[in-house]
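Q: Structure tokens for this one, please.
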Amino acid sequence: MRVNKPVGPFNASTHETYRGIVDHYRPDLAFYESTYRDLHRNPELSRQEERTSSIAADHLKAIGYRVHEHIGGYGLIGVLKNGNGPTVLLRADMDALPVRENTGLDYASKKTMIDINGTEVPVMHACGHDVHVSCLMGAAKLLHAAKSKWKGTLICLFQPAEEFVSGAQAMIDDGLYSRFDIPKPDIVLGQHVFCIYKAGTVNLSPGPVMAAYDGLKIRVFGKGGHGSMPDICIDPIVLASHIVVRLQTIVSRELKPGEVGVITCGKFHAGTAANIIPDYADLDVSIRTYDTTVQKQLLDAIQRTVRSECDVSKSPQDPVIEKNGHAPVTVNSVDQTGTLKTSFSSYFEDNASAMEPLPGSEDFSNLARAINVPSIFWMLGGCEPVKWDESKRNGKIGDIPINHSAGFAPVIEPTLRTGVDALAVAALTFLG
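A: Here is the predicted structure, written as tokens:
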């Protein structure tokens, strides 16, 4: 690969540093702050990111990128060819979550949408993808303005359906790397905002940084009837409840101390009325692991637990257990991450830190795995600095509303400025 450019002054002959370039060409962030508020107020569910995609595409077209839309759904890329040199891909995801917002912000979402199951649900940017989109739009503007300072090809990718851990693969399957007249990336770069980190910081380490994800849909069967006569019924709610409780013992009682795994039942649905015992119950389960051996152990244990509980409850038929999504472990390429850490440490100084692996999951790395190139994914702080310092001092970091919660609210600044700068510095590090 062609990204082993030494890190340091970007142009030693004129002493232009990354800071000089970024400070000189950074656009007025007021526009991107306004864009962020608009995106936050108007979130869109996975596979329905039509408006968000259009905003990103129109911006890229207006500043001079060649734009290709509707890749794997509402995915798009903006391409800026700027002479011979490496090709760098910057990625942002666009979709929101079915969460009712409770932040109290004056730009809070009050929106509802019809989800893929036909149900009307509240919608919120509870994972910061509005931050990601706004930052990449700003970085695209900065790097276009600074194109006299680098050579190569820049690809700005806006991805749909990350929350389904399917959008990256959908774009790949729809010809991301084959349908368009663009060189394949030499490296894939991305970031994610988290409020467990202080706003203004970037957090980066080599190796595994986010867990693998496996989703399961489980249906267990009972024998329905009147709620007053459970003795002649088989209650699938009781059966499913035993499964949920029993699943929590797999990690604590079957994994070796020091092995990491998480099993969460995030959705439990059964029945239609208080006086009716239903015929079945549905569970949606997620599994997080860093190791393929542990991953197999947990998946096998879940199968065994579900089937055993069905046998004990005299379920009239076998359970249905279906896979519902997979994302690999997000692993930062060691050599390239070392190079970027040097750039970040030079640029952000004390606001650049190492990070521990997070148990959340991402499909980001599929964009690199598909073409066997390195990738780097860093964490962008989102918690208001004074609040974070106070929470840290009082041992209450865990009280800060986290991603996927109704109170998740990254502070706009310095979060957006840091995110724009981080993407620009990362791109300049690996462009020619």
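A few notes: The CA atoms of residues 36 and 134 lie 6 Å apart. The chain is about 35% helix and 25% strand.
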